[in-house]
TrEMBL record:
Alphabetized UniProt keyword annotations: Membrane, Transmembrane, Transmembrane helix
Entry annotated with the keyword Lipid biosynthesis: no
Name the UniProt record assigns to this protein: Predicted protein
Chain intervals with Polar residues compositional bias: 342-371
């Protein structure tokens, strides 16, 4: 009930401001320039539907993996999954309201041939303002989410580097606290500035006497995000490369035993680094394009939010690649178990005519297909504080428990 009252109050406020605002130019062309037209709406709707469908497929696959292998996954693995779900969910929310925005605008395009004949034109655009505001908040907050995810994975890398003695305890403590404080501070700043920016944009749209420099706020958000991502990326790559070098040096047997390229520990670490950085810098590129399109040609906004959505999609795909060894290894074990069961059944049938001692002797010789230590190390999770040698893996397992 309270949410309904709040929403009604917001709409009433917009209606009041819209009714008090005046339009100086009332030609069809000038009115058409205030919101998207047919071609832009159709293209934007198609792009949004494509990305929402891709996200649905990725979420379905990840949910299946999580449900099927949750007992075999470690705490940090599950947390990475939920962070990806958060990222995808927020981007999907933005795309849904983008769909609503362009759908409403398309309805206006198809319903009215001459915008000058529309009474209370500004009030007709109020739903567009609301949908655009919610979408903008979700989009800008994605920057804060990316910062949090990079910080989380960086903490895992730092903890792993400390466990395998690739970093001193003093350096580990200093770097971890420094990046946690910086990331938290900048994420909160982006969070606050996102709402400030949306509020200013709404006020400038519904009240013609309100003037503010929207581009300046966008630039401030971009600079904060760019500085944070650059600092985190440098340390992210530095620690990640140290871990990869350590893995290659101390786990040569794993790489040789892994016939599948994706099952190698250094490949999993590298995939996580590349996926995270691609997503982050796609957000930066999208921010630059957003500033340009807002300043010169709003019709091209489809480019910036497509880049952002693509960055999130690529990151989720890279995370899926990281978990490919877990799935393929379990599928391989299931096939082996099926063969063992088949062998057991055939041996039991062939030995029914023998005495109990021979049958028990025959059954005792059936292979159990135990997990190989080499495969266990190869499957050691690169996104949990575990090392890559037999001793350090055992130590990290004890720490997880």
């Amino acid at each position: 009930m309270s949410a309904e009252l709040v929403s009604n109050g917001v709409l009433n406020l917009f209606e009041t401001l819209a009714s008090n605002s005046t339009i100086t130019n009332t030609t069809h062309e000038s009115l058409a320039s205030t919101f998207p037209q047919y071609s832009q709406n159709v293209g934007s709707i198609v792009v949004s539907c494509v990305f929402i469908s891709c996200y649905a497929i990725v979420v379905a696959i990840m949910s299946g993996i999580l449900i099927r292998y949750r007992k075999e996954m470690k705490r940090n693995q599950i947390l990475v999954f939920f962070l990806v779900f958060w990222c995808i969910g927020q981007q999907t929310l933005a795309l849904i309201f983008r769909l609503a925005y362009n759908g409403r605008a398309l309805w206006i395009n198809l319903t009215y041939s001459d915008y000058t004949k529309i009474e209370n034109f500004n009030q007709l655009l109020i739903p567009l303002y609301v949908f655009s505001a919610i979408e903008s908040v979700a989009v800008y907050l994605q920057g804060a989410v990316i910062i949090v995810i990079i910080c989380f994975i960086l903490n895992i890398f730092l903890d792993t580097a400390r466990v395998v003695n690739a970093m001193t305890q003093k350096a580990h403590k200093f770097i971890k606290y420094f990046f946690n404080i910086i990331s938290t501070l900048f994420a909160v700043l982006i969070f606050l500035l996102a709402f400030v920016h949306v509020g200013v944009v709404l006020a400038s749209k519904v009240a013609t006497n309100f003037k503010a420099n929207v581009i300046a706020i966008l630039i401030v958000i971009f600079v904060i995000f760019a500085v944070t991502i650059t600092i985190e990326s440098i340390m992210f790559v530095f620690v990640g490369v140290r871990l990869i070098l350590f893995v290659r040096k101390n786990s040569l047997g794993i790489s040789q035993a892994s016939s599948n390229f994706l099952q190698r520990p250094e490949v999993k670490i590298g995939a996580l680094i590349v996926g995270m950085l691609i997503s982050a810098y796609f957000q930066l590129l999208a921010s630059i394009v957003a500033i340009i399109t807002t300043s010169f040609n709003p019709v091209l906004h489809v480019i910036d939010y497509s880049l952002q959505a693509l960055g999130i999609l690529l990151f989720s795909i890279f995370v899926l690649l990281v978990y490919n060894p877990l799935v393929s290894y379990n599928m391989m074990n299931n096939k082996k178990d099926g063969k063992v069961i088949g062998n057991t059944t055939s041996e039991m049938k062939s030995e029914r005519s023998t005495n109990n001692s021979k049958r028990s002797k025959g059954l005792s010789q059936i292979p159990n297909s135990p997990k190989s230590p080499v495969v266990d190390i190869a499957l050691a999770d690169c996104v949990s504080p575990s090392a890559t040698t037999t001793t350090s893996v055992d130590q990290s397992v004890e720490e997880d428990k």
